[in-house]
Design brief:
With 365 residues, this protein is α/β, with parallel strands linked by helices. It has helices at 2-14, 28-38, 44-56, 75-83, 89-101, 178-184, 189-193, 218-226, 234-239, 260-267, 317-320, 347-350, 352-361, and strands spanning 118-122, 128-133, 137-140, 143-146, 150-153, 172-176, 203-205, 231-233, 249-252, 257-258, 272-274, 282-287, 292-297, 331-334, 337-340. It has three domains: 2-101, no CATH class; 117-157, no CATH class; 161-361, no CATH class. It has 13 helices and 15 strands.
Length: 365
C-alpha cells in the first residue's frame, strides 16, 4: 500500500518536474506540523496554515488559494514520507504545487502577509541568519521582542563539515521535549507550583503545534535540525521504548518531564548525550485517547520532600540548570554517556566548538 501511495505521489510530481526548490528552505515548524498532521495530532486547518505560509513566502509556485481547506486524506502519507526522509523536500513541495494547481488540494487564506514578514533582528551571528516573523513579536517598553526566533544556516562557514550531521559516521537522534513544552504552557503545571491553581492543573493538554519555547529547547531543536540531525519526539519513545535501540547515540534536550517507560529507555541506552541539565526530573503519565499528560511524581509533588521524581542518582539540575551563560561549558562522563554542566539554549546559537563537540561525542564507536 505504501509503495502504491508513493507511486501516486511521484506521478503527481511529474506535472511539475521542472520546478526546483532549495533544500532545507522550509522552516522547521512546517515540517513539524506535517509530522503531527500525518499522525492525526493536529487538524487539517492547522496543516493548511503552513501550506498557506509556503505560498506567501514564494516557496510554492502557485497562483492563488481558494475558499475552503480540502486536503485528500491519502496526502498524509506523503507528509509522513517527507518527515521521515523517504522523499526529499523538493519532491514534497512539487507534490503540493501539483495538487494546488489541479484543485485537488485547496487552502483557505488564513494569514495576512504582514504577519509572516521576516524581520531580521540580529545580523551579527557568524553561523546563522536569525530572524522572527512579525506575528511573533511582543512589545516591552515600546521595544519589539521576539518570543520565537528562526534560523537559516549560512553557506560560507569554514569547516562546516565539522558540525554537520554525517550519516556515514553518526547514527543519532535528537529527542524533542513535547511533554516538557506542554507542561510549561499556562494554565498548567507551573500555575499549580505558584499556588494559583489546584491539582486540576497537574493535568494538561499535549501541545503538538505550539512553539517549543525556551523551556522546550526550541533553539537546539531548530539548529540541530538545520545541521541534519534526525528528530524524534519523547512521545515516540513512550509509545515504543525499543525505538532508541535503533540509534547508536541519543541527544537529550531539556526533557524535564518524562514517562516511566521513557525514563527506562533513556537510562538503559549506552550512549546518551544529556545536552541540558534538569532532564529526567519528573514523572508524568500520558493519555493519548484524551491527549493529556498528568504529573505523577517530582517537583515537590505529591510530597514536599520529593525532588527528582525518579530518585535518579545522576540528576544534575543543581547547580547547572541556572548557568545560562555557559562560560565554562564542559561535558563530563556518567555510566551511559555524557552530561553538560550548563543550560545551552543560547550557547548553541553561536559557539562553533560546542556544535563540533556534539558531533564528536555522537560519532560511531
Amino acid at each position: 500500500m505504501k509503495i502504491l501511495l508513493l507511486f501516486f505521489t511521484m506521478l503527481f510530481c511529474l506535472g511539475c518536474a521542472l520546478t526546483t526548490h532549495a533544500e532545507e528552505s522550509v522552516p522547521f515548524w512546517i515540517k513539524n506540523n506535517a509530522m503531527w498532521w500525518s499522525a492525526d495530532k493536529i487538524s487539517d486547518d492547522e496543516f493548511a496554515h503552513g501550506v498557506d505560509w509556503l505560498i506567501f513566502d514564494g516557496l510554492l509556485n502557485v497562483s492563488s488559494s481558494v475558499s475552503e481547506n480540502e486536503i485528500p486524506f491519502w496526502f498524509k502519507n506523503t507528509a509522513d514520507y517527507w518527515t521521515h526522509n523517504l522523499i526529499s523536500e523538493t519532491e514534497f513541495l512539487n507534490a503540493l504545487e501539483y495538487l494546488l494547481e489541479e484543485n485537488l488540494l485547496t487552502v483557505k487564506r488564513s494569514v495576512s502577509l504582514p504577519d509572516y514578514q521576516k524581520h531580521q533582528f540580529s545580523g551579527n551571528n557568524e553561523f546563522f541568519t536569525i530572524y522572527a516573523y512579525e506575528k511573533d513579536f511582543y512589545f516591552e517598553n515600546n521595544n519589539p521582542i521576539p518570543k520565537d526566533i528562526q534560523f537559516l544556516l549560512k553557506s560560507d562557514i569554514e569547516h562546516i563539515e565539522d558540525i554537520l550531521y554525517d550519516s556515514r559516521k553518526q547514527n543519532s537522534a535528537v529527542v524533542m521535549p513535547i511533554f516538557t513544552s506542554s507542561a510549561y504552557w499556562e494554565p498548567g503545571f507551573y500555575t499549580f507550583y505558584r499556588n494559583e491553581c489546584s491539582a486540576e492543573c497537574l493535568t494538561t493538554k499535549i501541545e503538538y503545534s505550539k512553539f517549543l519555547g525556551y523551556s522546550g529547547s526550541s533553539n537546539a531543536v531548530k539548529i540541530l535540525s538545520l545541521l541534519g540531525y534526525p528528530l524524534i519526539a519523547d512521545i515516540d519513545i513512550d509509545k515504543d521504548p525499543n525505538l532508541l535501540d535503533t540509534f547508536d547515540s541519543v541527544i537529550l534536550l531539556h526533557n524535564e518531564y518524562v514517562t516511566q517507560k521513557e525514563f527506562e529507555s533513556i537510562t538503559n541506552h549506552p550512549n546518551v548525550l544529556y545536552l541540558y541539565p534538569n532532564a529526567l526530573y519528573a514523572e508524568i503519565e500520558a493519555n493519548y485517547d484524551e491527549n493529556i499528560i498528568t504529573l505523577i511524581r517530582g517537583h515537590s509533588y505529591p510530597e514536599k520532600h520529593i525532588d527528582n521524581g525518579f530518585d535518579w542518582e545522576f540528576d544534575n539540575t543543581r547547580p547547572y540548570e541556572f548557568d545560562t551563560e555557559c562560560l565554562d561549558w564542559n561535558f563530563y562522563s556518567i555510566p551511559n554517556g555524557h552530561m553538560l554542566n550548563c543550560f545551552p539554549e543560547n550557547l548553541i546559537i553561536d559557539d562553533f566548538e560546542f556544535l563540533k563537540e556534539i558531533k564528536n561525542l555522537t560519532l560511531k564507536k
